[in-house]
Specification:
Blueprint (H helix, E strand, L loop, with lengths): L1 H36 L4 E8 L6 E4 L5 E2 L5 H13 L8 E3 L4 E2 L6 E2 L18 E3 H10 L3 H11 L1 H11 L13 H5 L5 E2 L1 H12 L6 H12 L16 E9 L2 E9 L5 E9 L4 H19 L2
Antiparallel strand pairs: 1-2, 1-11, 3-8, 4-7, 5-6, 9-10, 10-11
Length: 297
């Protein structure tokens, strides 16, 4: 009889916790919806608790966005994949150049140092640079020059194909950065919040390559230098492995967030048509804080 009573109490406790969790998630959804309604622009939010897959929040996750620099994460995955296959070695070096072919007609174009977030790399043009170092700069500094060199090596189409195998069925990695002819014809890298969620989840769970390679990717993503969105209002003891991306009116952040208590989650925030870039960025940082506050306890 005692065992039955204990079992019954346990069931009631489980039901109560489940109901409370659902109620809290509904409140979170209301709060986040209210927050993004105040942003002058279009926003998508994808949140997934990696400790409980039923605990998620998905808003406009199938809407198409210009990928901006978030497409550099798929390029990193492809680099590790091709190294695992023996096609390349990240310890090898290549000649750093600033001359690339447009995907439209093969005509040559160069990167503009004034448009890049990594200006130091331009002083190294004409020298041999290790693939790993280029990849590292591509992620933590969002180096466009490094990105274009690496995309020529791994191939954009192969990168997109690899994303399909991970379950990201809409993301398109078509080209490098600053291919103006392609841009004018609407040929741009694109993504959805859902696909970036799938990709970051695959890295977090060791399914975007070998476990060792995924751990290395996470380590690189944790070194990200741009921290004005998802990490902005989070405590210093929270680790954020993430990649940002921005162009005019567009600002994104895709992250794996690690709490000291062992909880972890994926959060993707995408935005476009921002009328006030800085204000929109800060409002999205507030969304990140709301989600952290929801899951931290």
């Amino acid at each position: 009889m005692v065992k039955r009573i204990l079992l019954f109490v346990g069931v009631l406790y489980f039901i109560s916790c489940t109901q409370n969790s659902k109620e809290n998630l509904v409140e979170l959804s209301k709060e986040v919806t209210n927050q993004i309604s105040k942003i002058e622009g279009d926003v998508a939010v994808a949140f997934l608790d990696l400790n409980n897959s039923e605990n998620s929040l998905l808003i406009n996750v199938d809407e198409k966005f210009h990928a901006a620099s978030t497409m550099k994460v798929p390029v990193m995955i492809e680099l590790y994949k091709q190294q695992a296959e023996g096609t390349i070695n990240l310890k090898d070096s290549v000649l750093l150049k600033n001359e690339f072919k447009s995907i439209v007609d093969g005509s040559l174009y160069q990167m503009d140092i004034g448009e890049d977030s990594d200006d130091v790399i331009y002083s190294k043009i004409g020298t041999q640079q290790q693939l790993y170092d280029l990849m590292y700069g591509m992620i933590i500094l969002s180096s466009n020059l490094a990105t274009n060199v690496l995309i020529e090596i791994v191939d954009a189409k192969k990168t997109t194909e690899t994303m399909r195998t991970l379950g990201a069925d809409k993301i398109e990695v078509l080209r490098g950065v600053e291919d103006i002819k392609a841009y004018r014809q609407g040929l741009s890298n694109s993504t959805t919040a859902k696909d970036l969620l799938v990709i970051m989840k695959a890295i977090a769970e060791g399914k975007a390559g070998t476990q060792e390679d995924c751990d290395k990717m996470i380590s690189i993503l944790k070194d990200q230098k741009w921290k004005d969105m998802i990490p902005k209002y989070l405590p210093e003891n929270v680790e954020v492995a993430h990649k940002t991306g921005s162009i005019t009116g567009v600002h994104h952040d895709a992250a794996i967030v690690y709490l000291p208590n062992g909880k972890r989650y994926v959060l993707v925030l995408l935005s476009k048509n921002l009328k006030d870039f800085d204000k929109g960025t800060d409002q999205l940082a507030q969304v990140s804080k709301s989600i952290y506050d929801y899951i931290k306890d």
